[in-house]
Predict the structure.
Amino acid sequence: MEEKTLEEIIARYDSPTGKVLGILGDIQRSEGYIPRETLEMLSVKIDVRISQLYSIVTFYSFFSLKPVGEHVITICMGTACHVRGAVGVLDALESLLDIHGDTTEDGKFSVTTKDNKFTVEIARCFGACSMAPVLQIDGTLYGYANPDTLPAILEQYGWRAA
Amino acid sequence: MTQGKTGTELAEPPKKPVTVSINGNAYRADEGECLLTVAERVKIPIPHFCFEQSLEPYGACRLCMVGVVHHGKTVMETACTLRAKEGLTVLTDTPDIVKYRTILFELYLAEAPKSAVVKEMAARYGVTKTRFLRRVDTGDPLGGACILCGLCVRVCNEIMGAGAINFINRGPYTVVNTPFTEPSRDCYGCGACAAVCPTHAVSLEDRGGERILHSWSETKVPLSQCVSCGKYFAPAALEKSVLSRIEPPLRDDLEGLCPACRAKKLAKKEILAATGGDPGDA
């Protein structure tokens, strides 16, 4: 991220406290992930230790330190979605996109397809439990997801059956 | 967790004497004094991990739980965040507390299966086995002994002001380490983290002119060498920061000297000054 862009983001938050999450959120939204250089630059600019920022970024599943694909698919694995079959949806998605992921040692799940088109991540509850199981693609929420409806949804994002 | 207790109580302890009751016996204490300290003074054992005198108690380890009797009802509260006041009545070994403590020790045995301190303390309270899945990680830089109490993080941030380490990740994946698990540039190498660690999980070593912090991604910091005896005695960055807080005439006397040579030099100087000798070649 350009230094100027980062400064613009920082300038949006004038409160002396509680601005870190807002700034990190804006970086995540703008870049799709949090580049290490940006995090280090931010540490200097707002005078917060890099260890503190790193702690926050690794705590929330919303933040990612790894670059992501063109479209980000987030599957909810919250309690309601889990019991309504989110695991099956994830399995189907993995086979459709030909990816296989595991929870990494940091407890996060993030897999990107070889062509860099899709990244699949896991979230804990969007607060849309009434439509469980739900998944989100680039910010758009899809409820009542199941393995059969997945291909039609993915096709809207340029996916084609192999 | 601390139920709104503020730091001001600890910063300016009021000296009003009060009587508190622990397990049916009355003891004198200062009003506002930390109950865990009172119990330690009168030799009533209350197990604890995360209590550190130089830091504000924060009840993280939950082990010092005691029953507070209030209007005939007993509620559980951590002794470290409990403040002495007139008539405070606590019980340290009620069946509830014993049950609670047993489960907690089982959890600690699972969280830090390699910690001798945890094993020894748990055994003292009759807990030698755990029903929980033990956290086994052969590559753990903290040797399977960290209980995540956070004392090292707090001492590094709040007392040393270095902020070299912090918690990373969340839930069962939580660890303490340097950002990106790479050698830290913020670490002074003071070793305060190792000094406060209740389970001796932090590993560091002085090798040659370097201090190597094995637990913190092998961070290496240079040590200062004593100009007089040649011994390596303190991390260079720490020495510099301490010296910067001392006034110049004394600072010039102390600079570059290890504690032993420092004492020798100052003593010699004092004696020579008292006997009218020449301090010049002290």
Chain A has seven helices and five strands. Chain A touches chain B through 15 residues (CB under 8 Å).
